[in-house]
Amino acid sequence: MTATLDLWPIGNCQVSALIDRSGRFVWGCLPRIDGDPAFSSLLDDAPPAGEGAYGFWEIDLDGVVKTTQAYLRNTPILATHHVDAHGNAIEIIDFAPRFHRNGRTYRPTAFVRIVRPVAGSPRIRVRLRPSTAWGSARADHTRGSNHIRYLLENGVMRLSTTAPIGWIEDERLFRVERPLHFFLGPDESFDDDIAASLEMMLDRTTAEWRHWVRGLATPYEWQEAVIRAAITLKLCQHEETGAIVAAMTTSIPEHADSGRNWDYRYCWIRDAYYTIQALNRLGALDVLEGYLEYLRNIVDNAAGGHIQPLYGVGGEQTLTEWEAPGLNGYRGMGPVRVGNQAYDQIQHDAYGQIVLSNAQAFFDHRLFRMAGISDFEALEPIGERAWERYDQPDAGLWELRTRSYVHTYSAAMCWAACDRLANAAAALGLRDRAAFWQDRADTMRARIEQAAWRPETNRLSATFAGDNLDASLIQLLELRFLAPDDPRFLGTLEAVETGLRRGSNMLRYDSEDDFGVPHTAFNVCTFWLIEALHYTGRDDDARVLLEEMLSRRTPAGLLSEDIDPVSGELWGNYPQTYSLVGMINCAVLLSKPWSTIR
Questions:
Q1: Is 83 strand, coil or helix?
Q2: Surface-to-core class of residue 31, CB atoms within 10 Å of its CB (0-12 exposed, 13-18 middle, 19+ buried)
Q3: What are the distances in angstroms from CA 99 to CA 105, 356, 534?
Q4: Could you give the CA distance from residue 377 to residue 160 in angstroms, rounded to a whole number?
């Protein structure tokens, strides 16, 4: 079966896994989301379950002819239903435990699978073949009385199960006559009743997620899409530290054989800002509060106010990029990259996103910890850095590797840093500091307007030196740098839509970069266009475009980073936080109010 992005994420904000349309674990890293993949077959084009294949976990119904999948309502718990040609059937429940106990959140480095007979006399074969050392080898194992220990590069995982352990080890076909329970977790004895414990974990994990969803302020329309996007964004937070990763995967190409294969399992300051912005619109303040704690530590450790574009989920600063020779890539389209050298790039927009992420904490009385004067003082060096760098070249938000320009988006984000610092100072009653930062913001605005405006083409340029188009210019509206009725914004929007729209999709840009001319559209840019259409009075067009984008989702209700404008096939890392953010933001903006049905 050719690999696709028809994948179902499960997780518990410590670990996550992607399950394919056959119910097979094909991606999952341990002991956390940026770790070594125990399940790596998504990035290996060896035939699934074939001789010598590994990096997956399969519970295969003998003679299966039909498989259906769905999440339990308002959870990331997956139910997969298999039926064979004779009507024999099983159901598999997959999840990662997550619930409160003993005053804290229980989220072990563990996955649970429960197999239930549904009809007839089904026979299954369990193949659990973890990989180690980035797919370079199949993990060795040892066997106990009711467990198997898998020796991974970064530790040992233990499978505890109620199924016959010898049949699991031998990958033998056997009949399912009772529910079977599997717990793949830390190398610790499972002292309790396995079946009762895992059923309890299922019940409590279900209740925990449904309680979280119940607190979301969802729009009336497109609720299912918004809830699924919100749950998945939550899964992208490493709850221990508060970091938010850009995606769960690495090295899914942006288009076929492009070489644009990047590792997104880290915390980009930019992507995380957009994530909390979307979840804030739904009232998911727990994600904001966790991320702000992470961010305050990043700011404290920033040398001279310098902020990297991205960090590890534990706040690691060095994310050296290398290629994993043991995996040949998604559909054989390598390389598989680990780490991301963009960490040492200069991207000035990060200063704005640091301040913007913190800004709400100075005003929102719902937070357990509102920001105060000490927090403001900690952010001022970030504002100083934004003031010093806003009109200097950088790699930009698209992370150009061999070129640098003064990017209008980066400059506007730096302006936003100073503008929002002025707002925060005013909220704290610091009149002198408010005036200081507002003066700087006004100076920056004037410089940006002068340097980026192109009267001959009636639009803003993406860079100070050129006259080029970039979808990020639409974001000047969201930043409140320009108003929706400003003729300069309307001219820019018309130019961007005309130049970069391809049918129902938007490109980031159409100029050549380090890897040539991009072939696929960038999903979040289409959502940016939808927002702009709404704010400029084109709601009918916006709704049509939103419905089109929602129709492109995977069966799990999610989107990746990129889409082929011609075929509609999804490409790029998955699930992509940017794309999920776009779904939420646009649904909130365009939905009919609840008052229409009350």
A1: strand
A2: middle
A3: 6, 31, 39
A4: 51
Two tokens at 208?
Answer: 């925990």
Residue the block writes with tokens 């040398």 = 303
Is-contact 64 80, C-beta < 8 A? no
- Altogether, the residues listed in the chain come to a count of 598
**Residue 98 — left, alpha, or beta (φ > 0 → left; ψ -120 to 50 → alpha)?**
beta
> Directed axis angle between helix 373-389 and helix 349-359, to 10°?
160
The radius of gyration of the chain's CA atoms, rounded to the nearest angstrom, is 25
Which position has the token pair 């739904």? 282
CA torsion sign for 499, 505, 507, 508 is positive
Q: Residue 523 half-sphere exposure, CB side, CA atoms within 13 Å?
A: 32
Produce one character per residue of 282-295: b if its CB has 16 or more CB atoms within 10 Å, e if not.
bebbbbbbbbbebb
Which of 186, 48, 40, 16 lies closest to 125 in space, CA to CA? Answer: 48
CA distance 341 to 344: 6
Rounded CA separation 330/325 (Å): 13
In tens digits, the chain (598 residues) has pLDDT values of: 588 999 999 999 999 999 999 999 999 999 999 999 999 999 998 887 778 899 999 999 999 999 999 999 999 999 999 999 999 999 999 999 999 998 899 999 999 999 999 999 999 999 999 999 999 999 999 998 889 999 998 899 999 999 999 999 999 999 999 999 999 999 999 889 999 999 999 999 999 999 999 999 999 999 999 999 999 999 999 999 999 999 999 999 999 999 999 999 999 999 999 999 999 999 999 999 999 999 999 999 887 778 999 999 999 999 999 999 999 999 999 999 999 999 999 999 999 999 999 999 999 999 999 999 999 999 999 999 999 999 999 999 988 888 899 999 999 999 999 999 999 999 999 999 999 999 999 999 999 999 999 999 999 999 999 899 999 999 999 999 999 999 999 999 999 999 999 999 999 998 777 777 788 999 999 999 999 999 999 999 999 999 999 999 999 999 999 999 999 999 999 999 999 999 999 999 999 999 998 8
- The CA distance from 481 to 467, in Å, is 19
